[in-house]
Amino acid sequence: MTETAEELRETVRRRYAEAAVTVTAGGSGCCGDEAATTLELDQSFGSALYTQLDRDDLPVAAVAASLGCGNPTTVAALNEGERVLDLGSGGGIDVLLSARRVGATGFAYGVDMTTEMLDLARANATRAGATNVEFLLRTIEDIPLPDAAVDVVISNCVINLSTDKPTVLREMFRVLAPGGRIGISDVVAEDQLTPDQRAERGAHVGCIAGALTRREYLDGLAAVGFVDATVEFTHPVADQMHGAIIRATKPAADTTITAVDPGTAACCSTVDASTCCAPEAKAGCCHTSDGTPPTSCGCRG
Questions:
Q1: Exposed, middle or buried, 281 (CB in 10 Å: 0-12/13-18/19+)?
Q2: What is the pLDDT of residue 72?
Q3: How far from chain centre, in Å, is Cα 269?
Q4: Nearest to 188 by CA among 198, 202, 174, 200
Q5: Which of the pair, 169 or 274, is modelled with greater confidence?
Q6: Residue 83 · residue 107 · CB < 8 Å
Q7: SS3 category, 36
Q8: Residue range(s) of every CATH 3.40.50.150 domain in the chain
Q9: Rounded CA gap, 293 and 296, in Å?
Q10: Which residue has the higher pLDDT, 68 or 114?
């Protein structure tokens, strides 16, 4: 029987809670952090995708709890003083690396829906002596930050686990400041794979069944207003499925898209404004402040 969205979310939550408990239990022996249990993953996922230098500079429990498919902190090319948000922050490895890269004048947030992972992440932050971090309990479809709160959004093999990806993409756009960017590692399917074929290649919690295709990712980012989006395959994780780097930018404030009265043109009718017709089809009713063609669907900025 097919799981509902809520059942899938609970399956994912339970799996990551168990992972956090495994790592925490492994680190509680007489040898301290060095006894932390490393979760059983192949070389396509987990701490093997981080440099030895990154791993050496963090608490063992943070490294051991890594379940991602890349290293988004390097993908995003973080700078001193930036505000960073990690979606699905888990044991905190990417938040702690981000905090180090943005320095004392920057800040790194982590959002996770799993209490056990948040407890582990906060303990890891204490061990690392990180003071410019905060971990928040919430789903990635409902980010507990105000509009334009961060400069960069990162995520490591988590968006594919969401059962409502359009909402996740909208939330990323909302919390980014104008000119902000995303640097995401995720599992992405080749365009020819159907949802059923993706499901055949692995479980939802294994980052496969819920994966978007490259075209779906690009279309979804454009639909909420991102520009300059790219999806770059990095390494195979299953047949016609890849670890990938996803980058995109939120337009600067002076290039926001506006719309005229929806009644003045058919392409901006109430129905069509909520769909993804080609931007050039909206040339008669949508425009940007600098005169360039619209870059998102439905005249949305």
A1: middle
A2: 65
A3: 32
A4: 198
A5: 169
A6: yes
A7: coil
A8: 5-250
A9: 9
A10: 114
CA atoms of 289 and 161, how far apart (whole Å): 37
Per-residue burial over 153-192, b = 16 or more CB atoms within 10 Å of its CB, e = otherwise? bbbbbbbbbbbebebbbbbbbbbbbeebbbbbbbbbbeee
| pLDDT tens per residue, range 102-116 | 999 999 999 998 888
Mean pLDDT of the chain: 73
pLDDT of residue 75: 72
- Enumerate residues 6+ apart whose C-beta is below 8 A from 129: none
Count how many Cα atoms sit within 13 Å of the Cα of residue 33 in the half-sphere of its side chain. 15
pLDDT for the residue numbered 79: 94
Closest by CA position to 197, among listed 137, 153, 240 = 240
Q: Report the alpha-carbon distance of residue 109 to residue 138 in Å, rounded.
A: 12
Structure confidence at residue 108 (pLDDT): 96
Residue 155: predicted pLDDT: 92
The packing angle between helices 115-128 and 93-102, to 10°, is: 40
Token pair listed for 276: 């993804």
Q: Beta strands 257-259 and 286-288: pairing type?
A: antiparallel
What is the rounded CA–CA span in Å between residue 268 and residue 271?
8
Domain 5-250: CATH superfamily is: Vaccinia Virus protein VP39 (3.40.50.150)
* Segment of 25-39, 56-70, 133-147 carrying the highest mean pLDDT: 133-147
Better-predicted residue by pLDDT, 199 or 41: 199
* Sign, Cα dihedral of 164, 170, 176, 181: positive
